[in-house]
């Protein structure tokens, strides 16, 4: 269902560049150099490594898993795309630098002209958001997709927070529901150290979306209202370690997928669970993170359910290497390949996916 602010009549989505076709020679891994936030060192005032995404890609290139030719280049989400979920009022508020400073937790942005904030901070976040939406379509077509950025799970339709200015997970799901035949149920498996209160608020009344969220119960955002939307809630204590953590990941991800079989899984794979993370408060080893991702992908592959992974939080310099190692492990384990899902996704999903009429279809397929 479109947000009231979205353009186009019901059943006729607006023309979007984000669902352009992607050559089969590309791996369904989405990235753009514009993901990285660099501006006069201001990005260093937030614990987030704002160049993390480029480092992941460089590691994957070094291992000869990726080249510039087989990466899918993300596109920036346009205002019309964002209006599928966000209110016009919220998007207008982002034109005030103090609002963006609050959301990103970088106070000096308050003193910068908004055109600079738009270009240096919000455009990278819009490009990552576009990447998540693009990766949703790719996951359906190929069986899996990874957006090397995204996972802004604290943002909902009308408010941002926690470095999250756009609700990319909600947007990816609504795009799929609106534009891809046969996609009518989604499961979010959110394993970032923080509660995913943004998508929870957005899907509070939506029975089509099943949410599993596993997080440190004592840290931000502690959003009691949003918790009502969680179908499978796993609250962790400070310092939870590998054995207990991985046991819970396996038990609850398998349980969630047994409870309701979705048409797509959105996996929020935050690395802020890593031992020593200044914000996550958990004690998971690098090997534990790699194993966690493998468990989730294995559960999806066993059931032949397409999976979209986004990278979300992670506040240490070493997280980029761990994300790259995890992707390489998924490849070694046969969880991700260039081929589509066994049995191929039905051609009606891939070729007849757009519910467009007339000329609009030719612009988006």
From TrEMBL:
Q: Enumerate the catalysed reactions.
A: N(6)-acetyl-L-lysyl-[histone] + H2O = L-lysyl-[histone] + acetate
Record has Repressor as a keyword: yes
One BP term from GO: epigenetic regulation of gene expression
Top-level taxon in the UniProt lineage:
Eukaryota
GO CC aspect terms: histone deacetylase complex
Under which EC number(s) is this enzyme classified?
3.5.1.98
Q: Name one Pfam family in it.
A: Hist_deacetyl
InterPro entries in the record: HDAC_classIV, HDACs, His_deacetylse_dom, His_deacetylse_dom_sf, Ureohydrolase_dom_sf
Give UniProt keywords alphabetically.
Chromatin regulator, Hydrolase, Nucleus, Repressor, Transcription, Transcription regulation
Histone deacetylase domain boundaries: 46-326
Q: Which cell locations does it reside in?
A: Nucleus
Subunit composition and interactions = Interacts with HDAC6.
Q: Which family is it part of? A: Belongs to the histone deacetylase family.
Purpose: Responsible for the deacetylation of lysine residues on the N-terminal part of the core histones (H2A, H2B, H3 and H4). Histone deacetylation gives a tag for epigenetic repression and plays an important role in transcriptional regulation, cell cycle progression and developmental events. Histone deacetylases act via the formation of large multiprotein complexes.
Q: What is the designated name of this protein?
A: Histone deacetylase 11
